[in-house]
Design brief:
five-stranded mixed beta sheet, Heat Shock Protein 90, Beta-Lactamase, 55% helix, alpha+beta, five-stranded antiparallel beta sheet
Length: 357
């Protein structure tokens, strides 16, 4: 405790000297930050912005201050901006979302906006946030998506080639072999040889059916002729019979036309999910749910199997994760979001959300 007035004055001066450089450093950081920083009041009008906000938008500080944030956010992102604002009023958290800034020259720049509520004496008084230009990130994502799309197109072309070879070459060869064995069987008089030939013919027939199944799995003719829901019902019915697993597709046949690449991705992702279930899950039931609503297509594949640690598998380098990563690549190629959710003992969910239009 300082009793001497002169000492008190010196202490106050010393505190001032400490605070002023601190304020100066904060102001310097604020102005020189590469990300745009802003503060707006609870009505949404800007009260403070830094130099980066001017550089990003093309507006001067005087042209920004006092104006509502809706003047600078692209209209299609305003709903999400309002939702994030209301969320911060209800829960004291930081929100992050992507949007587009409308610049003074009319250009639109993709940005990531992170913001939090400002409180004084326990009362919300405004919002402070940062706006980061993500043009380079978006460009990289577009390039990655383009290459994913091309890779998948090449894979589909290769599948069709293999399917034709299975049908035209291997299938025909096996059919000819089956006929020859049958002919020899009819001519032989030795019971032991007759029995061995019958066994060989059965084996050839089983192989021929397997080749036919593989060829049908590789082709997409059912998809092109029937549409996504009908093609999935056809495929799932075959799958249930072949693997002795109860399986069904829940979806409206009158779903309307869908882009070909969307149908293809949904069909192949479902195929991969069901194949994984048959190989690893020990499931007794699988459900495929397909729904179109509000400009979005939702696909969900659920099994009641033994499950696995999906996060650990996807974060590692296991060969078992190759199919799961293939699903992720297909989702990326159509700008969709995919979740692979599984825990030991809890079954597995594959959830795909595809934006349409």
């Amino acid at each position: 405790m300082i009793k001497d007035p002169q000492q008190a004055t010196l202490a106050e001066d010393s505190q001032t000297k400490i605070e002023r450089p601190s304020e100066g450093r904060y102001q310097e950081l604020f102005e020189n930050c590469r990300d745009a920083i802003y503060v707006h009041d609870l009505s949404g009008r800007y009260t403070l912005v830094n130099r980066a906000a001017e550089e990003l938008s093309g507006y001067t500080r005087d042209e920004i201050l006092g104006r509502h944030y809706s003047n600078f956010v692209a209209p299609r992102h305003l709903k999400e901006a309002r939702e994030k604002f209301c969320l911060k009023l209800d829960v004291p958290i930081e929100t992050t979302y992507e949007a587009e800034v409308v610049c003074k020259d009319g250009a639109r720049i993709p940005v990531e906006i992170s913001s939090r509520m400002i409180y004084e004496n326990g009362e919300a008084v405004g919002v402070q946030g940062t706006v980061r230009d993500i043009t380079d990130r978006k460009r990289a994502q577009d390039i990655l998506q383009m290459y994913s799309h091309r890779l998948i197109e090449a894979q589909e072309a290769e599948r069709q080639t293999i399917a034709r070879e299975l049908d035209d070459e291997i299938g025909n060869t096996l059919s000819e072999l089956q006929l020859k064995l049958s002919s020899i069987q009819n001519e032989t008089e030795t019971s032991q040889l007759h029995s061995q030939l019958a066994e060989a013919i059965d084996k050839v027939e089983e192989t021929l059916m397997r080749v036919s199944d593989l060829s049908q799995d590789l082709r997409t003719s059912q998809l092109e002729e029937l549409g996504l829901v009908a093609a999935l019902r056809w495929y799932v019915a075959r799958y249930a019979k072949r693997n002795r697993i109860a399986a069904e597709v829940i979806g409206d046949l009158a779903m309307g036309s869908l882009p070909h690449d969307v149908e293809m991705a949904c069909f192949r992702i479902t195929q991969e999910a069901l194949a994984n279930t048959a190989r690893h899950a020990r499931a007794t039931r699988v459900t495929v749910h397909l729904e179109r609503s509000k400009g979005q297509l939702n696909l969900a594949v659920h099994d009641n199997g033994i499950g696995f640690n999906s996060r650990k598998l996807l974060d590692g380098f296991s060969a078992r994760a190759s199919g799961l990563r293939g699903m992720q690549e297909r989702a990326l190629a159509i700008k969709a979001q995919i979740e692979i959710i599984s825990k030991p003992g809890s079954g597995t969910d594959i959830i795909l959300d595809v934006p349409l239009g």
